[in-house]
Design a protein that fits this description.
Number of helices: 38
Distance between the termini: 51 Å
Shape: globular
Largest sheet: 5 strands, antiparallel
Structural class: alpha+beta
CATH class of the domain at 466-679: Mainly Alpha
Strand content: 15-25%
Number of strands: 33
Radius of gyration: 32 Å
Length: about 1100
């Protein structure tokens, strides 16, 4: 399909499937910052390895808001610039009213319809700003860019996302911008694309989080295009007519260079921003964490792999199965992980970085020998001071890898991407500061001088000239070149020439290992293009080199070479772990039934010690044509074999997987429950629900068993849930979940109780479950305080009047918690108990302020006049909490007398005599009452506050909050996302300051200021400063201390520099990593509660908990 942003004539060409020449109706001119010395001055703050020279390649206005960049073989730099952040590229944390709709979306068209529903005509605002692709060149070779053009723009449709991926190959520029995969070309050499072709469409079904884009473009060893998408999902029909649809997760795709044969390579990722292949064709990504105390992950991306993330987990306070079941932890990291981690997922190799962004594998020239085999990962953490580029390598570990030599390569730069120029210099893009795009941007090069020379110059020359005119013997020699880019160029050239004889010679003579591996990959390309390469691949399967054999095994399966079946089976039985891995997957591609017994033997021998070998064996079994032959092993004595069969049946979504619900190994029972419940497999759901009749204890299993009963909605299921709620042997968390399901029985939520997936149920008859509820109440009311509190609520909801006397006893018992007593009083009211009046009288006289407040609220409903007297009195002498409740109750009376009392309170507010804890409640009460007189009085008071002063406009949020609710805001409020960057008590993120003791000696106003105005005062150790002295010297570092006489900075080298204040002529500082609109998504009540919570944090962090 061809697309053009020029309407009319170009659109007709589009409809006919013809190439469309691109043109834009008017030039787009975004507000880019002017040129300055800032980019040059920032270099002083970078921490770089010894011997590395830093050069500013380009800066604003030549480049702005660089998300990612690509470098072609001639050194031209293509930069993805974004100008639509929060101006069309949205984040549903800023639109929480959309959330339920967003979670229900299945297609991009659904998303467009949702935008129109919520925004109406304002949706057109989303088209005002563009994302674009910028071409930047150094035309005179001095290492500094001197020419720039807008290569492509017009990416501003309502549905468009961030342009976040670019790859240049043979003059084609591939570009990913939700919802499309684009191929662009400049056919006349003017630096602007004149052909724009959409090769695939339908990516980015949901809004989800900003930054969870379509990205990661890489050229695979097979000559295919690989790319990724964050957890915004996809609903794409490929060119062959196959629908690829997963609206709920991130994935890695691959396709041919014309967009054909698009397929999902791996899924279950959250936000794999970049991909990178190593020298051996292994694919890796850094995947972001979910801001819930989990850690970012370094993932080996394997064919058919599922990393376990689902987008809807994000909106559960504890992220549901993701955290509860240790899905994000490395395999068998500890006993807890071993006990609960799902076997159906591919665990990460290691947890590393906080904001994994750009990623590149060292090509082989330009750096010291240490970096052979190393990756470089941009770690974007919101501020330059704690961001940079990490480096590490992978060391083989079974069929997988382990991390080695992990360290910071560059520090103190807000890097979004990293790559290498043709001549071996590292290039890094600098976002400058913040999260939304400052309309600035820089590209820097980092040159290891000692590693530059003839070798790097020759690489640049080879890449620029290509190999189309190079004789075959010379191309063969280049297959073993030190630089992978040259090797790949040689490989592609031989594949293009279909030079089978040369490739066979490479494989059958004494050649470097990498040369032979590239020869196997060239055969892969040729075979996929239709050439007959079978004998050559079979030859490679018997190579003396185990890695060459492993690569040949991968190719044989992809090409479905039936002649390879026997050697592949032998490889499964007796090969290295790498050979076994690729051979097992390949046998699945070949739908081999003969291999089933060997794959089963592999499972038994592995004993689940290597999750990658288990995955490969499962892939082999999944691909087998004869499913019955596989299922015959479902009762094998080996636990590992049974588990492998179970996982294959999960992939088939076979209802007979329910057989494993009675397996003798409890872990397999849980694994079967996950498959049945989470996929779901509807036919097996009744069998899962029936497990409630057996003694169970595992959290992951019980939650799914209870929810199966809840979803099926049968009376017998309600009784099972009630029985579990009654169980004194279960932990409170599970008993409370059972009670919650009974509470929600008649009006079920649209989101699944375990996974949070959008799975609506119909309204049901509450009377059908009253008997089940009644049977559980005695046990619930005798439970722990939490269980008892929820049991009281349950009795009230279902009208179980006979528990009235028991509720009255709980109310009158001062040993009960305040919550139990308050809920008991509420329940007596809901049940219309004859004991209510005496209970209210008891409550009014009690020493518990919360109980007294509730009694007054109920009195207002039965005796408003008496209540008015009580409420007026409490405003004079009650506790702040009672006064807060009193003004809310007064508003509910909606009487002239109540209005007069509130008017008096407003006068107290105006003269500064109202308790500060009550200010917000009074304002809300006035709003609720809708009295014009009160509203006028309040408006008059608000006008006396300093205008355009954010703090003054929120002074009512300083005092009176609820710390418990504030903790929920901190850890559970998706819009606030506090835990994304901050820790309290060892929980949360490590990007920003630890707030465990933030309340110690700090006034409440400062807490409010830090939330509303994060740049007003930046925490010590997080503020980056640039100082220019009167003698022209520039100092850059992190502010450590400041007095009237001196400013002390911590330089990138670790040295503390003291600069006399009187010598400072200019001063600039970086912004806080905390978004300026961080408080946008929370209301004033939540803000007040958050301030209260922070003010109570006075215990310094325990380092052992980090």
């Amino acid at each position: 399909m061809k697309w053009s942003v020029r309407a009319c004539a170009a659109s007709i060409l589009v409809g006919l499937g013809l190439s469309a020449v691109v043109g834009w109706a008017e030039e787009y001119n975004p507000p880019v910052a002017p040129a300055s010395q800032d980019g040059q001055q920032a270099i002083g703050g970078f921490k770089v390895p010894d011997g590395v020279n830093v050069q500013l390649f380009a800066a604003e206005p030549m480049v702005a808001n660089p998300v990612v960049f690509g470098i072609d073989h001639r050194g031209k730099v293509y930069v993805c610039e974004t100008f639509r952040q929060q101006k069309g590229v949205e984040d549903n944390r800023s639109h929480m009213s959309w959330l339920l709709d967003d979670l229900s979306l299945q297609t991009v068209d659904d998303r467009i319809a949702m935008f129109r529903k919520h925004l109406g005509d304002k949706v057109s605002d989303y088209t005002k700003e563009h994302d674009r692709l910028r071409l930047i060149q150094d035309t005179n070779g001095d290492g500094v860019a001197d020419h720039a053009t807008v290569f492509a723009e017009g990416f501003n449709a309502i549905e468009d996302g961030t342009g976040a991926g670019v790859l240049i190959h043979n003059g084609d520029v591939f570009y990913t911008c939700i919802p499309k995969l684009w191929k662009l070309r400049d056919s006349d050499g003017d630096g602007k694309a004149d052909v724009k072709e959409a090769m695939a469409d339908g990516f980015g079904v949901r809004v989800a989080f900003r930054g969870h884009d379509m990205h990661g473009l890489q050229l695979g060893p097979d000559g295919r295009l690989y790319f990724s998408i964050g957890d915004r999902g996809y609903h794409v029909t490929n060119q062959e007519g196959q629908l690829l649809a997963r609206p709920d997760t991130g994935a890695v795709f691959r396709c041919d260079l014309d967009g054909s044969h698009l397929e999902v390579f791996a899924l279950g990722l959250r936000n794999p921003q970049e991909l990178a292949f190593d020298d051996f064709g292994n694919l890796f990504t850094g995947d972001n964490n979910s801001d819930s105390g989990d850690k970012a992950r370094w993932v080996y991306v394997v064919e058919g792999g599922d990393a376990g993330w689902r987008m809807y987990y994000q909106y559960l306070p504890d992220r549901g199965p993701w955290n509860r079941e240790h899905t994000w932890h490395p395999y068998r990291e500890d006993a807890a992980t071993t006990a609960v981690q799902p076997a159906s997922t591919i665990p990460p190799i290691v947890n590393v970085a906080d904001g994994p962004s750009g990623l590149v594998y060292y090509p082989g020239t330009g750096l010291p020998k240490r970096y052979k085999g190393h990756f470089f990962l941009a770690d974007f953490r919101g501020t330059a001071g704690n961001s940079g580029v990490r480096s590490f390598a992978m060391e083989p570990h079974g069929a997988s890898f382990k991390l080695v030599d992990s360290h910071w390569y560059l520090e103190h730069i807000l890097a979004t991407d990293v790559d290498f120029t043709p001549d071996g210099r590292m290039m890094v893009s600098d976002w400058v500061d913040g999260w939304n795009g400052p309309n600035k941007g820089r590209l820097y090069t980092f040159t290891d001088s000692a590693s530059q020379g003839e070798a790097t110059r020759q690489v640049a020359k080879r890449l620029a000239e290509g190999l189309s005119a190079t004789p075959a013997p010379e191309v063969v020699q280049l297959m073993g070149h030190a630089d992978r880019r040259v090797r790949q160029l040689a490989q592609f050239e031989l594949a293009q020439r279909k030079d089978l004889a040369t490739l066979v010679q490479l494989l059958t003579t004494d050649q470097p290992q990498l040369a032979q591996i590239h020869a196997v990959w060239a055969l892969w390309q040729m075979g996929r293009a239709g050439s007959s390469v079978n004998p050559a691949v079979i030859t490679a399967l018997s190579s003396k080199d185990a890695e060459v054999r492993a690569q040949a095994a991968k190719v044989a399966g992809e090409l479905k070479l039936q002649a390879a079946e026997a050697p592949l089976i032998q490889m499964v039985l007796a090969g290295s772990a790498r050979e076994q891995f690729f051979a097992a997957i390949s046998l699945g591609h070949m739908q081999s039934n003969t291999a089933i017994s060997s794959l089963v033997d592999l499972l038994a021998a592995n004993q689940d010690n290597d999750p990658m070998l288990r995955h490969a064996a499962v892939m082999g079994l999944t691909g087998a044509a004869d499913h019955m032959a596989v299922k015959q092993h479902a009762t094998d004595n080996s636990r590992s074999i049974r588990l492998g069969v179970l996982l294959a049946m999960r992939r088939w979504q076979d209802p007979e997987i329910a057989l494993f619900l009675s397996d003798r190994d409890p872990d397999l029972v849980v694994e079967a429950a996950r498959a049945i419940h989470d996929l779901p497999i509807a036919e097996a759901m009744p069998a899962l629900a029936a497990l409630a009749d057996s003694p169970l204890s595992e959290d992951a299993l019980l939650r799914r068993v209870m929810n199966a009963n809840f979803r099926l909605g049968e009376v017998a299921g309600a009784q099972r849930i009630a029985n579990l709620a009654s169980s004194k042997t279960l932990p409170d968390a599970l008993r409370l979940e059972a009670v919650a399901e009974l509470m929600a029985w008649d009006n079920p939520p649209v989101l699944d109780r375990v996974t949070n997936q959008h799975r609506p149920l119909t309204v049901r008859d509450a009377t059908l479950v009253r008997g089940a509820v009644r049977s559980a109440l005695a046990s619930l009311l005798a439970g722990t305080n939490q269980v008892r509190t929820e049991g009281v609520k349950l009795a009230a909801k279902y009208g179980i009047t006979e528990v009235g006397p028991e509720l009255a006893k709980l109310l009158a018992d001062p040993k009960q918690t305040s919550k139990v007593r308050v809920e008991s009083l509420k329940a007596l009211s809901a049940l219309k108990s004859p004991l209510l009046n005496s209970a209210v009288d008891t409550g009014l006289k009690d020493t518990d302020p919360s109980l007294r407040s509730e009694a007054r609220r109920l009195l207002a409903g039965t005796d408003p006049d008496r209540a008015l007297i009580e409420l007026t009195a409490v405003l004079l002498q009650g506790t702040p909490g009672e006064q807060q409740s009193a003004v809310r109750v007064l508003a509910s009376l909606k009487s002239k007398a109540a209005e007069m009392v509130l008017a008096t309170q407003l006068k107290s507010l105006a003269i500064g005599k109202l308790a500060p804890e009550v200010e917000l409640d009074l304002m809300e009460a006035v709003e609720a009452l809708q009295s014009k007189a009160l509203e006028a009085a309040l408006s008059e008071y608000l006008q006396t506050r300093p205008q355009n002063d954010v703090l003054a406009a929120h002074r009512e949020c300083i005092s009176g909050g609820d710390a418990e609710r504030g903790r929920e805001v901190f850890f559970g409020n998706a819009a606030a996302s506090c835990r994304r960057c901050h820790m309290v008590g060892g929980q949360g993120g490590a990007v920003g300051p630890d707030l465990s003791a933030v309340g110690k000696g700090k006034p409440r106003l400062e807490h409010l200021e830090s939330i509303l105005l994060p740049n007003a005062k930046i925490a010590k150790g997080f503020e980056t400063v640039v100082l220019i002295t009167d003698d022209g010297l520039v100092y850059t570092g992190v502010l450590r201390e400041e007095t009237p006489e001196v400013v002390k900075l911590m330089a990138a080298t670790g040295e503390v520099i003291s600069v006399p204040t009187k010598k400072i002529e200019e001063r600039a500082r970086g912004k806080s990593g905390m978004p300026e609109d961080a408080a946008k998504g929370i209301n004033k009540r939540d803000l007040r509660d958050l301030v209260e919570y922070l003010s109570q944090q006075v215990t310094p962090a325990d380092p052992e908990k980090h």
